[in-house]
Specification:
It is a single chain. The protein is mainly beta. The protein has 5 domains: about 60 residues, Complement Module, domain 1 (Ribbon), CATH 2.10.70.10; about 45 residues, Complement Module, domain 1; about 50 residues, Complement Module, domain 1, CATH 2.10.70; about 60 residues, Complement Module, domain 1 (Ribbon), CATH 2.10.70.10; about 70 residues, Complement Module, domain 1, CATH 2.10.70. It is built from 3 helices and 30 strands. The strands form 12 sheets. A 4-stranded antiparallel beta sheet has the order 28-27-29-30, with no helix packed on it. A 3-stranded antiparallel beta sheet has the order 2-4-6, with no helix packed on it. The structure holds 2-acetamido-2-deoxy-beta-D-glucopyranose. It comes from Xiphophorus couchianus (Monterrey platyfish).
């Protein structure tokens, strides 16, 4: 048999190095699927049994737990199945997150805490062979901030009542300074992460603005050529007939600049000659409109003719910073018409 086997193997062209092993002897089986066996011997004789078991962390679910070496020198087959042990599903963590892919033997859970919370306990756990997690779920507790330092010439106002010497995540502190001191930078400090609020300092300096400059066509309530302190105010005015638009009062801000200045807007003249206009509820002939001037934002109406209906109608137009557009429907009569037939002008006939 040995000769024949060797011949067969040579004929089949295989490179043979292990054919010296005796027939009818089983060599150590190669096991897969997390199965292991007892004993360390390399060869077994026919009739010998091997006890199989599952590796640590795996549980047998079916199939015989023994294999036998047969007369042919091969082991009987086994349908033994080993499945990994299950750990319980992890609990949720308040104010944190739980990351895991599986809950079987050797799976890992990672825990994180939301911003502003810190962890007490282990940040990860491994499913052990015993079917339990290596550590319990951690807790996420709010990070305490120290209280915001109180400024010498001002105060700190918290958005919530503070007890003791710590502030909780999310608490905001707003700095107020007594003029002429001003908060430089962000006046709001927030407890966002560990000790963040004490890092966010509030710097105090005396803030001044340069002497205010009057606006074009305007004047100032205070002409002192000095530096003005934070929160000092000055009023702007406009020379007549200019009209002030914006805030009359400007204030020295904590950035050392004045708040937005107002501006002085120009009056308009009504560029029609032979007509009667409507201004401030009164109908006025242009030759009596003295001076020919309406103020910024004033409304003036001119009269147009509805030729089909033979009636007149007033069309309003507004003075915007020196510009008063005359509506296109307005037609200026000839001097002759204006002098001889004033009663036929659109301002005088029946109104539509
Ligand atoms: C847990 O964290 C480790 C280390 O950062 C990482 O390698 C692993 O992928 C994470 N596992 C999960 C399920 O997020």
């Amino acid at each position: 048999l040995q000769k024949m086997e060797r011949l067969f193997l040579l004929c089949s062209g295989l490179l043979v190095t292990t054919v010296t092993s005796q027939p009818n002897v089983c060599s150590r089986p190669e096991l897969s699927g997390n199965i292991e066996m007892s004993g360390i011997q390399r060869f077994s004789s026919p009739g010998e049994e091997l006890a199989l078991s599952c590796k640590e962390g795996y549980t047998p679910v079916s199939g015989p737990r023994k294999i036998v070496c047969t007369m042919n020198g091969v082991w009987t087959s086994t349908k033994l199945k080993c499945i990994p042990k299950q750990c319980p599903h992890p609990e949720l963590v308040t104010n944190g997150e739980v990351f895991y892919e599986d809950t079987v033997y050797q799976s890992t859970i990672n825990y994180t805490c939301h911003e502003g919370y810190m962890m007490t306990g282990e940040s990860s756990a491994v499913c052990q062979s015993s079917g339990t997690w290596s550590s319990p779920a951690p807790e996420c507790i709010p990070v305490p901030c120290g209280l915001a330092p109180v400024p010498l010439y001002g105060m700190v106002i918290y958005d919530k009542v503070v007890r003791g010497n710590t502030a909780n995540y999310g608490l905001t502190a707003t700095y107020h300074c007594n003029a002429p001191y001003a908060v430089v930078g962000n006046p709001v400090a927030e407890c966002t992460a560990i000790y963040e609020s004490s890092k966010q300092m509030c710097f105090f300096t005396v803030v001044t603005c340069p002497p205010p400059e009057s606006i074009e066509r305007g004047y100032l309530s205070n002409n002192e050529k000095r530096e003005f302190f934070y929160e000092e105010k000055v009023k702007h005015g406009c020379e007549s007939p200019y009209v002030l638009e914006g805030n009359m009062e400007v204030v020295c801000q904590n950035n050392g600049r004045w708040s937005e200045k107002p501006s002085c807007k120009a009056p308009c003249s009504v560029n029609v000659q032979r007509a009667r206009i409507l201004h401030n509820g009164k109908k006025i002939w242009m030759e009596n409109f003295e001076p020919n001037r309406v103020l910024h934002l004033d409304i003036v109406s001119v009269y147009c003719m509805n030729k089909a209906m033979k009636c007149g109608y007033a069309v309003p137009t507004q003075c915007i910073d020196g510009t008063l557009n005359i509506p296109e429907c307005f037609e200026e009569p000839s001097a002759l018409e204006y002098t001889l037939k004033p009663n036929s002008l659109p301002s005088e006939i029946d109104q539509c």
